[in-house]
Amino acid sequence: MEAIKVLIVDDSATVRQVLTRELAKDAGLQVVGAAPDPFAARELMQLHQPDILTLDLEMPRLDGLSFLKRLMEHRPMPVIVVSSLTPQGSALALQAMEAGALDVLGKPGIAYGVGELAPQLIARLKALGRVRVAKKVAAVGPMVLPGLSKTTNQVLAIGASTGGTEALRRMLAMLPPDAPGTMIVQHMPPGFTAQFAQRLNECCKIHVKEAEHGDIISPGICLVAPGDRHLLLRRDGAIYRADLRDGPKVGLHKPAVDVLFRSVAQIAGANAIGVLLTGMGRDGADGLKLLQGAGSPTIAQDEASCVVWGMPGEAVKLGAADQILPLDQIPGAILNLARKHG
Predict the structure, then answer these.
(1) Cα separation of 104 and 65, whole Å?
(2) Would you list the domain boundaries of the chain?
(3) DSSP label at 270?
(4) Residue 188 contacts by C-beta under 8 Å, 6 or more apart in sequence?
(5) Which terminal CB of the chain, N or C, has fewer other CB atoms within 10 Å?
(6) Residue 89: its pLDDT value, please?
(7) pLDDT at residue 94, rounded to an integer
(8) What is the mean pLDDT of each successive set of 10 residues along the chain, which is 342 residues long?
(9) pLDDT of residue 307
(10) Alpha helices for 257-310 (secondary structure H)
(11) Cβ(147)–Cβ(235) under 8 Å?
């Protein structure tokens, strides 16, 4: 009998290499390709006609869950999901099975550790590689293809104004190297934010830089909005990226905290944490309320530790802050929330 042809789909080059090496050790399997995203996978499928796919869920351009649903609608075939988002019994594991996956394996957090899954994966590939999969048809109308509701990468969105430069320095210096990917709007004129980000980078364990269009939001990275652009969040498959836009001031500000918070609420929802620090006025108060409504935990700096309790104070009046904390307690609260919601 011919070997079962396997296509590996995973955005991690390390995972692709490890799985290709380990699966090649079994004569009953033939790895015909390894794709970094669903678009590359589609081309390799046409070229090599694999019998079965291993599929990650967190990938750029199109997340794995959406790809799986399209695959089952147009070209049904055996799929085993291998993802860090799908430990046994998790909600996403069940969603993947409902979408058509024949099996789900939880991937270790460290890419090199995926080799430990090889014996299980090989057995399942050989057992399921020749299963015939029926086409999934929506009961009424076209199939709805929602993307992933959760990713392992979280977004920490922070807004600040008067007194914020020192508050941010103190707060960010307390975060560990693997802190959630961070986006900051600090009211500051053009030409100052790059130097401000550089100074923060010198005193922090995380990497701080002025945001550039398309920057990936990932753990240990902190992006500061340029002084003349609005900073927003966008999604690229299962990857979060920075989106810089020109345009009019919002509430007298560019960048505006409300613009950042609004986009994070829409794009990341419960994958985000919102923090509003010292500042004059009310920029960010409405945005923090939107974040809260989207399921994001929200924090406002307390009055005693603020230089000006305008922005966080307005958020508190709206009931937008889940926690009201002294500045030095905010980093610990962020890390607790990140662990809880991760």
Answers:
(1) 12
(2) 4-128, 155-341
(3) G
(4) 165, 196, 227
(5) N
(6) 46
(7) 66
(8) 93 91 94 95 95 90 88 91 69 75 77 79 89 59 43 86 91 95 93 90 96 94 96 88 93 94 94 95 96 96 93 97 97 93 60
(9) 86
(10) 257-267, 285-293
(11) yes
Q: What's the number of CA atoms in the CB half-sphere (13 Å) around residue 257?
A: 33
**Cα gap 1→190, rounded to integer Å:** 67
Residue ranges of alpha helices (H) inside the chain are 13-23, 38-48, 64-74, 91-99, 118-128, 164-172, 193-203, 257-267, 285-293, 311-318, 330-341
Bond before 190 cis per omega within 30 degrees = no
pTM of the predicted structure, to 2 decimals: 0.68
Q: Supply the pLDDT for residue 125.
A: 92
Mind telling me the catalytic residues? 161, 187, 283
Which amino acid is residue 289, in one-letter code? K
pLDDT of residue 150: 52
Do 4-128 and 155-341 have matching folds?
yes
**Residues 232 and 247 sit within 8 Å (Cβ to Cβ):** no
pLDDT for residue 341: 65
What is the model's pLDDT at position 136?
Answer: 56
**Rounded to 10 degrees, what is the CA torsion of 69, 71, 73, 77?**
-120
**Sign of CA pseudo-dihedral 18, 21, 27, 33:** positive
Q: Do 148 and 63 touch, CB atoms closer than 8 A?
A: yes
* CATH assignment of 155-341, among 1.10.10.10, 3.90.105.10, 3.20.20.450, 3.40.50.180: 3.40.50.180
Decide if 66 contacts 147 (C-beta within 8 A): yes
- The Cα–Cα gap between 243 and 239 comes to 13
Cα separations in angstroms, 312 against 90, 263, 288, 329: 36, 19, 9, 15
Structure tokens at 105: 């394996």
pLDDT attached to residue 189? 81
Q: How many residues are given for the chain?
A: 342
The CATH number assigned to the domain with range 4-128 reads 3.40.50.2300
Among 173, 187, 181, smallest CA distance to 328 is for 173
